[in-house]
Amino acid sequence: MAGFGVPMSPNQIPVVLFIFSSSLVLGMATGIPGTLGVTDAALISQLQYFYSGVIGLGLASAITIVFRIATVWFVQLFGFVAFLYTLRYWKG
Question: Would I find Transmembrane helix among this entry's keywords (predicted)?
C-alpha cells in the first residue's frame, strides 16, 4: 500500500494483515473458484472503511487489482507453465 502513496507505519501492519486475511477468508467461505468477486468487494470495502480519509474507491480498487494479480493470477500463470513443462516431460 505504501507503493500507492498511502502513509504506512509499523503499527498499521496488524490492520493491513486483518484486512487482507479476512477478505480472503470471506471469499473462501463462499466456495466460488478463485474467490472472485467476494474477496475483491471485501478488500475494497475494508480498505475504504479502515482508511476512510486516505483511500478512496479508485485507490482501493487499484490496490485490490494489484493484490489479486499477485496472489491469484500470477500463481495461475506459474501453475500453467509448470503444467506445460510436465506435459512435455511425460510425452518424452
Answer: yes
| N-term to C-term CA, the chain | 46
Model confidence, pTM: 0.80
Count of Cβ atoms closer than 10 Å to residue 42 Cβ:
20
What is the chain's pLDDT, residue by residue, as a tens digit (92 residues)? 888 999 889 999 999 999 999 999 999 999 888 788 999 999 999 999 999 989 999 999 999 999 999 888 888 999 999 999 999 888 76
What is the number of other CB atoms lying within 10 angstroms of the CB of residue 60?
22
CB burial of residue 52 (10 Å; 0-12, 13-18, 19+):
exposed
For residue 57, the enclosing domain spans: 2-91
When divided into structural domains, the chain yields a total of 1
SS3 32: coil
